[in-house]
Design brief:
Shape of chain B: globular
Order of helices and strands of chain A: EEEEEEEEEEE
Helix content of chain B: under 10%
Largest interface: A-B, 22 and 22 residues
Number of strands of chain B: 11
Radius of gyration of chain A: 13 Å
Oligomer: heterodimer
Strand content of chain B: over 45%
Shape of chain A: globular
Structural class of chain A: mainly beta
Number of helices of chain B: 0
Distance between the termini of chain A: 41 Å
Largest sheet of chain B: 7 strands, mixed
Number of helices of chain A: 0
Number of strands of chain A: 11
Largest sheet of chain A: 6 strands, mixed
């Protein structure tokens, strides 16, 4: 079985500050990990994915995530927050590189303060 | 990349009735999925829509409550049957093309009153 835990349902940062959204996973097989973003009243958009090619993964909009097997973590970071980053972020795990049949975390709502 | 269109985008329904949600992709896809996002919660996979055969349901979801059709490689429907307020959720369609990453529609926001 696979599961994902996102620590912190709400994260608030100032514009220009570091963004850190935490994700820990549990998987009985090598996991494929994903971060999605959901803007208000929109569908999910893929930010980045880990599929074992490299532990540090760079995504869109300046986000990146590092896969740490020893910590079973895949935290999402961005060096400098922008107002447009305000959204809900979901970490997800799949048995397949394609991201089919995803198991999602609870989500983290990111607020960016001016 | 391909685009998913879902209809309706939102609806308010009376309890006891059924609603069918349509998912149309603008090009052929290999797999299609349906997810539910209950208020304040994460997304949960309901089922995999199989073309030409019965859908594969996840634990906790049954065909009688969520019948799914997939008559071809670009279209699927999800019906929410005998609705109750607990069915109020966002329902999202997802699809897969070859080796590409699965992508999502914008969802259908359902409110049951």
């Amino acid at each position: 079985a696979q599961s994902v835990t996102q620590l912190g349902s709400h994260v608030s940062v100032s514009e220009g500050a570091l963004v850190l959204l935490r994700c820990n996973y549990s998987s009985s097989v090598p996991p494929y990990l994903f971060w999605y973003v959901q803007y208000p009243n929109q569908g999910l958009q893929l930010l980045l994915k880990y599929t074992s090619a490299a532990t540090l993964v760079k995504g869109i909009n300046g986000f990146e995530a590092e896969f740490k097997k020893s910590e079973t973590s895949f935290h999402l970071t961005k060096p400098s927050a922008h107002m447009s980053d305000a959204a809900e972020y979901f970490c997800a795990v799949s048995r397949e590189t394609s991201g089919s049949r995803l198991t999602f975390g609870e989500g983290t709502q990111l607020t960016v303060n001016p | 990349s391909a685009v998913i269109s879902q209809k309706p985008s939102r609806d308010i329904c009376q309890r006891g009735t059924s609603l069918t949600i349509q998912c149309q992709v603008d090009s052929q896809v290999t797999m299609m999925f349906w997810y539910r996002q209950q208020p304040g919660q994460s997304l949960t996979l309901i089922a995999t829509a199989n073309q030409g055969s019965e859908a594969t349901y996840e634990s906790g979801f049954v065909i009688d409550k969520f019948p799914i059709s997939r008559p071809n490689l670009t279209f699927s429907t999800l019906t929410v049957s005998n609705m109750s307020p607990e069915d109020s959720s966002i329902y999202l369609c997802s699809a897969l093309q070859g080796d590409a990453i699965a992508f999502f529609g914008q969802g259908t926001r359902l409110t049951v009153v």
